[in-house]
Structures are given as structure tokens and as C-alpha cells.
Amino acid sequence: MAPRIGVYDSGTGGLTTLALLRAKLPQCSFLYYADTARMPFGSKSREEIFECAGEALRVLRRETDIVVFGCNTASVTVRPKDVFCLHPDLDSCDPHHTLVLATPATVAATDARGKGFLTADTSELAVLVEVRLSLRFKSRTRLDCSDLEDYLKRRLAPFARRADRVLIGCSHYVYAEREIARITGVSDCRDGNDALTERVARTVYG
Q1: Which of 15, 88, 117, 131 has most Cβ atoms within 10 angstroms of its Cβ?
Q2: In the chain, what is the straight-line distance between the N-terminal and C-terminal CA atoms, in Å?
């Protein structure tokens, strides 16, 4: 019997991870756990993030065979060993030419600034995207993040043409990837989902 896979995120951002897993593993069933009541995680303390993730883990370990964190902040803060985690791959990048876009908690947990990576203050972006995702689901329209361009320009304009790669370290930011690429002038934007879903697939297929 194919395993049941549980996917966890602070809100609807992890639906990007879920979509890739469903496409790669059509024989599996899925349970999506969205903690929208306590979203966003990126501005919470380490203790609060552990509490949120701990509750989700108890449910997903009971109800599913494989647990996937589609939340970068929970992944890099809690770092559960028996869970597939989504996180920015800093180790494979040149810090002087890589812009890391993530929540304050993820930037701190990965020590991106201390390692010399370019970082921008996008602390409100996850909530801004979450609101638009919620409205989209209610109206059944396609998500459009173009109205976030002014916000993104204010945050990202200083980094335009300074980096040749962008690491997207928040599942919510993936929805604004097109706008991020256009403003920064960087076509190489990586969010870690491909590597994560490939690791899960290897485990399922043995």
C-alpha cells in the first residue's frame, strides 16, 4: 500500500510543496495541515515555533506514514530528524553573490547574515501573500501578486544586479517568484521544493 504523506505549513504557502508531491507521487494519499490560526511563524520566538510545530507533528505522526515540513521557518528552527524539511540550501551557494529572501526567524536560524549572504527585509511578505491566497480561494480566481510590486521594489531595489542567484526561504514567497525575479534581475531563483520532493520520492520508491 502506498504511504500517506502529511504536509505541514504555517498557512497555505506549503501548497506549492503539496502540489509537487502529488504530481510526483500520484499513488500516495495526502493530509495537509495548515496552521493558519497562528500564522505567520517568521516573527515568532523559537519557543513559539517549537510549540506550533510540536502540535502538528503529534497529529501528523499519528495520521500519516511520512511527514513533510513545507515551512522553512519550522524546518530550520525545529529540525526534526524524522521529517523531510524544506529549507534554503545555503551550503551550495556563494554568499557574496546570493540573495536570501526569508522570514526573520529563518534568516536568524540559518545565520545567513553571519555567513555573508545578502538579505533583504521582507518580514511582511508572508502575510501579504497569505491574504491574497485566502481571497483567491474564496473567489476561485488565479493568484496575482503583481500588486505587491511596489512593496517588493522598496525592499529589493537595493539588491538589483548585485546577486546572480536568489534563494527563496519561505514557501509563501514562491507565489511572488516572478515579481522577485523581475525586480532583482535574477533568473536563477531556487526555493528548495524540487530537492525536497525528490528526497521524498526516493524514500517512497525505495
Answers
A1: 88
A2: 13
